Amino acid sequence: MKETLKKIAGVLKLVFGYGIMIVLFVGGLTFFGYLAAIIIGGETATNICTWISKSLTPIIIYVSTILILLGLVCMYLAGEKALVPGKKNAVQEGEK
To answer: Per-residue pLDDT tens for 14-41?
Structure first.
């Protein structure tokens, strides 16, 4: 059972990793959209900025939220614990 969960977690981790990478890339591209709007100016710039903020940004937010939930499910299935010091780290910190 644990091996099956780890295999599922591995696939979910792969989807999570590539998904977050794509969302971050598209989010970074919005910078270039705003930069192009500054260079172009006028009514066209307003249309570009409006399209980015009304159409693209909500999609990025929804997709990233879903991917974060997928990542949390992946961590749960794999039995990973984040931000929890292990016994090895606790002993080393106590010795200092």
So the answer is: 999 999 999 999 999 999 999 999 999 8
